[in-house]
Amino acid sequence: xxxxxxxxxxxxxxxxxxxxxxxxxxxxxxxxxxxxxxxxxxxxxxxxxxxxxxxxxxxxxxxxxxxxxxxxxxxxxxxxxxxxxxxxxxxxxxxxxxxxxxxxxxxxxxxxxxxxxxxxxxxxxxxxxxxxxxxxxxxxxxxxxxxxxxxxxxxxxxxxxxxxxxxxxxxxxxxxxxxxxxxxxxxxxxxxxxxxxxxxxxxxxxxxxxxxxxxxxxxxxxxxxxxxxxxxxxxxxxxxxxxxxxxxxxxxxxxxxxxxxxxxxxxxxxxxxxxxxxxxxxxxxxxxxxxxxxxxxxxxxxxxxxxxxxxxxxxxxxxxxxxxxxxxxxxxxxxxxxx
Length: 339
Known about the structure:
Layout: E1 12-16, H1 22-30, E2 35-38, H2 46-57, E3 62-63, E4 74-77, E5 101-106, H3 117-125, E6 128-131, E7 148-151, H4 163-175, E8 179-184, H5 194-202, E9 208-211, H6 216-223, E10 237-241, H7 255-260, E11 264-268, H8 274-283, E12 291-296, E13 304-309, H9 313-319, E14 326-330
Parallel strand pairs: 1-2, 1-4, 2-3, 5-8, 5-9, 6-7, 6-8, 10-11
Antiparallel strand pairs: 11-14, 12-13, 12-14
């Protein structure tokens, strides 16, 4: 797919007849500065509806079943509605016998500009692309026309593909002799479960290599004007998952130690538990007035952020409707740079 729209100041684009790969179309357009609306009726299939709900929740599109074509600069039919060659069910998808190989590609936090040259090369050479929802999906326009694209998104508290199924897909296609590229958001080994995918392939004798990605833990604060280290303020930073709160029985982080560490704290996947995390850090001695920031959809056109203190950042983020994916930074570095 190669979508090019006329240049201009944020052209408005209406997409009709969205298909299950609508996220690719939207990313290709928003990367060009377009403001995208999707005309979606109640008759679209569940997979497409889930993708649209996710894109809309991240403020990447507006969904409007009653949108009028004359109100937009560009109107186009989703080019990926009709299955392309190489997609499941097409005759070109049989594969050749023998063992292929797998490359785990870290795609960075979402903007194609932050994908590495090595990652781009892998996408261009792939027979099969297994993609996360937070990967830089607009890069799929660089893939071969006969590539098979498989979306395995994990929407928070919504539709998701179990990790075991993802592992099985990588193995299945590699054993069919295909070059499989696992395109992930961020870095493969920073809460990306890339190690599990490596081990699943290695256990079946499948060659695996990795292209490291720019981690959102570092890139997103930088894009929001926050250096994770700053001379005279801190000598380091720590990245921790906030997927479960400090009081959850599944929690493995020592939040008491984090409260005393004196380092910048970067929390990934911590929106839902942010109030509990803040309360716990304060209970264990962290100054309630410590600067804090929450950044949603980092590196995307919909990036937005809120700033406050450890004591009130959860309430501020909630009031501003910051939703996953979001990163929270706690520490004096939040106010290190002059506006």
